[in-house]
Description:
Elements: H1 4-13, H2 16-21, E1 27-29, E2 32-35, E3 47-50, E4 55-58, E5 64-65, H3 67-75, H4 79-90, H5 149-154, H6 158-168, H7 172-180, E6 185-187, E7 190-196, E8 202-209, E9 212-216, E10 225-227, E11 235-239, H8 242-251, E12 261-265, E13 282-285, H9 303-314, E14 320-323, H10 333-340, H11 344-353, H12 366-371, E15 380-382, E16 389-390, E17 394-399, H13 405-418, E18 433-437, H14 442-458, H15 463-472, E19 473-477, H16 483-497, E20 501-505, H17 518-536, E21 539-545, H18 561-565, H19 573-577, E22 580-586, E23 592-599, H20 601-604, E24 617-622, E25 631-633, E26 670-671, H21 673-684, H22 688-700, E27 704-706, E28 712-714, H23 716-724, H24 734-738
Parallel strand pairs: 11-12, 11-13, 13-14, 17-21, 17-22, 18-19, 18-20, 20-21
Antiparallel strand pairs: 1-2, 2-3, 3-4, 4-5, 6-7, 7-8, 8-9, 10-12, 15-16, 22-23, 23-24, 24-25, 26-28, 27-28
Helix pairs in contact: 3-4, 8-10, 13-14, 13-15, 16-17, 21-22
Amino acid sequence: MISEHTIERIRQEADIASIIGGFVNLKKSGSAYEACCPFHNEKSPSFKVTPDKGRFHCFGCGKGGDVIQFIQEHEGKSFIDAVEYLGQKLGLTIEDDDLPPTPAGRLSISAYRYEEPLPELPPAVEDPEPEEDDDLPPLAKPVKKSFDWKSKVEAFTDEHAAKLAEWRGFSREFVDWLKREQLIGVHNGSFAIPVAGPDGEVNRCHYRLPKGWAYFPKEGDSTALVVGDPLHAAHTLIFESQWDAFSVLDLLGHHFDPAPFAAIITRGANSNTDVSKLPIPNLIAVPQNDPDEKRSKTTGRTPAEEWLHKITENKNSDTEFAVAQIPKDHKDANDWIRDTNPSNEEVFRRIVETAQNPALKGVLTVDDLLDYDTQNDESSLIGYEKRFLGRGGSMVVIGQSGIGKSTLTTGFASHAAAGVPWNGIKFRKPLKTLVIQAENDEGDLKEMLDGVFAIMRRDTFTKEQIRAFRKNLIFRQETEKTGEEFCKWLESVIRETKADLVLIDPLLSYIGDDISQQKVASQFLRNWLQPVLKRTGAMITVIHHTGKPPKDRSSMKSWSDSDYSYLGIGSSELVNWARAVMVIVETKEPGTFQLRITKRGKRAGMVDQFTGHVVNQIYLRHGGFAEGQSWQQTRYEEEEEEPKRGPGRPPKSENKPVSVEGYLRYVGACTTHQDALKAIMGGNNMSIVRAKAVVTEMIRVGLLVRGADGFYRKSELARTRSSTDESPHEENTVERCLL
């Protein structure tokens, strides 16, 4: 076997740029060289050689390593042949190592630790001869009983090999290789894996029980199992489980020469994750797919994510690191390979070629974005046709205190749970909806749901829709937790309930600090709450209060959507953070409210039920007696401002008492408040002030009655009076209304 001294000398003395330049047309690029990769077809250069580090790397196919690995890859040579080839080019004598080769399974990470040479010691001084006449027998040195791993390997019979190959889906050739390399044995009738001590020698085993794993002997080291040579391999793979490692190595052809891979097996997610002692050139982690149920309530990470986190934190600073992702519908690599029987090329592509540095996770190329199908974006769940709100998204609902925001948002949540459009806004599917609230007790919630059921009966929800509503909508009261504690608690509840949509009512109960401070709002929303949405994929709707309404409401007529968005109490950071904003304000007509979607409103798909048009604002009123606590669309038209009068008194004729019944003939059978005003003004050359007085009096005495749809209709009394009596009535004069 070639000595380690010779190998290191070749690495140090070989000019990697000169050696590779003999095979590839390198071009100078700063302190490095670049070229089109010799290992895959490409038009633009992504192959880089860095002489200072003595390494090459292709950013296209991922191949990389030192000068020895290049000769192995490019010339198809074994490691020994590559070393001998380079030794001849450098004129070096290839020295052999007197030590026997170490079996592939006997190495531990500790065995790779680099030690400082021991200092030279002075010549030993011989002990003087012991005096005679000592009657005590010499002390016998204690004999340490060695662990006999070889016998356990020999106990692994052909029958065991056939059973393991069938059970785990390994090829028989690979299982035979495991035995040859002393990587598999039998202890007490169970499959066993070797455990090496710091010196690299096997001193115990890890064996399988019906319910888990155990060590024999119980006391001793529990180091990682190292297969191959991580320092010289083109790619070193790290796994939690030996079965995952063996499955992948089998399909990658590790049991054939040359073997360009090595593997580190940590024996579980909580041990042996410190690989900082090894200057591994290229490390690829292959984590398992743990279910969300295993997520830690403290860290929010699954065991596999925690394992990956530890490896990332504890790798050598010079190691190029990447993470491979096995298909999500399989729990681990062995499960995937055993169930789907992928080709060697597919395993190489998924484990090696497409492995990605976790620091670059989520990075998108132009090609990725051009290929993205926005028309079929499964992550878009609310107003999904135009991607109004999707997983991890946020919306703020802003309104005055006491107007019924909770009732409004409960109606929204109920439609989301049933999967039924709310005022035209469509849901991709019935959403699991969680309402977190602090102010409403069970009685309040019951009254709101009574209103919801009344609307469902009126709108004839199907049995399936009502069943989905009852199944998917849940409420949780929380009155103690605030700030970061609340957000951590919220994440655990979202995971337990698997909520798609969460409503927080109101925000002020949970922020736990002064929301007018931008720093406070940013920390709560961006640093604590948003990561919860990112990790869980839940959407959130936050209910928030406005400050005092403007004294001059007429000024709001000229407001933009942006102006309305910032009506909420506190820092503007709330609106800046939110993906969408919805605002509800009262109009000049008591009991009628305007609902505006002021941010992303054109995407929501909200519909005016009276015109059928897609709009970003509608008008609402509280439900009638039969509808309970609810909100319904209504008609409303902004009144025109009365033109300013010139100097002097109004025409004398406008002060003349006139019966309101006389104006009924100008009013249509079904009309709006605005249309009635225009009709009366136009037919009588009347000012808007007097026309308002006429219409108000008609409504007061019951001549005009407003329906649930917002239209005004003539009552039976009006029809009688307009046909039988058109004389003035003192009690119904405009003057009474003007007083």
